[in-house]
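Weekly structure sync, notes
Attendees: PL, DS, HV (note-taker this week)

Item 1: 2-C-methyl-D-erythritol 4-phosphate cytidylyltransferase
DS walked through the input record. Source organism listed as Actinobacillus porcitonsillarum. Sequence as pasted into the shared doc:
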Amino acid sequence: MSRQIVAVIPASGIGSRMNAPLPKQYLPLLGKTILEHTVSLFLEHHQIDKIVIAVSAEDSYYQALDLLRSPKIQFVLGGETRAHSVFNALQTIDEDAWVLVHDAARPCLKRSDLDKLLQITNEQGAILATPAIDTMKRAENGVISHTEDRSTLWHALTPQFFPVKLLKHALHHAFEKGESVTDEASAMELMGYHPLLIAGRSDNLKITRPEDLALAEFYLTHSTE
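Item 1 (cont.): predicted structure, written out as tokens:
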């Protein structure tokens, strides 16, 4: 099926948990910034027509990146939250297109996982995810309340893949209701949709803490794909 596919990368966060002097997406990793590693797979993929990166109005770092030289990339201003940044990016995309939303700090996405996601045609969309393997505890005030049944629990990853028109509507609905959405699938769920879960690789990690940098470097230099 021929369809326009656009990748959206919200990159306007500051990454406070990294305790770094600059936003985490610009930290060096194997000679490039994290953001450049993240974007490279989408740049190289023949099915991705465009990449929209949402950056902060105070961000001066992206202007030094070679990414600006690619005609496939467009920068837009991000918003107050991740969801608002994604919504701003969606305004630049044809409503008949499909969108892949991917975290700026997930540089280890493999082509095989991206290809699996791009095969999805279900109108309710799909996300990459991994099944929970650790014992999951629910806590109240720092004390264990009970142990969750992990057999039905999944860790949500990105990319998350949806028709642009539906995702725009879902995000707008969440804003109007004052709902906090931490990923695109949760906005779709609020509308009554049930996106598919596509089993992805566990090395598609999100760099959040300083120790994650070493792990990302290992994954990038020891690819099993």
